[in-house]
Write a structure and sequence with these properties.
Keywords: Membrane, Transmembrane, Transmembrane helix. The chain crosses the membrane at residues 6-27. The chain is of the alpha+beta class and 78 residues long. The chain has two domains: 1-39; 40-78, no CATH class. 71% of the residues lie in helices and 13% in strands. It has three helices and two strands; from the N terminus they run H-E-E-H-H. A two-stranded antiparallel ribbon has the order 1-2. Strand 1 and strand 2 form a beta hairpin. The longest helix is centred in the first third of the chain and has 37 residues, at 2-38. The radius of gyration is 24 Å and the shape is rod-shaped.
Length: 78
């Protein structure tokens, strides 16, 4: 019992605290990305991670396709 109190209890306490912090960070990130998706952000894969790009920035960069422009370009090529 003495070994448990001096060795195992502090280790399990530290493990529990670390797991709670990781869970908190995961929930916070999940909420952030759900809000970004709801707000219309675009996600671009870049060097092993996703970048969130706002709709205004994506339009300025030419990453968005407008249906009327796309259809007129296709029609003009026929």
């Amino acid at each position: 019992m003495n070994t448990y109190l001096t060795i195992m209890l502090p280790i399990s306490g530290i493990y529990f605290i670390v797991m709670v912090v990781i869970l908190w960070a995961y929930i916070k990130a999940k909420r952030k990305y759900k809000k970004m998706i709801k707000d219309g952000f675009y996600f671009i894969w870049n060097r092993g991670s996703f970048l969130g790009v706002s709709p205004e920035t994506a339009e300025l960069m030419g990453l968005t396709a407008h249906l009327d422009t796309a259809n007129s370009n296709i029609a003009s090529q026929l």
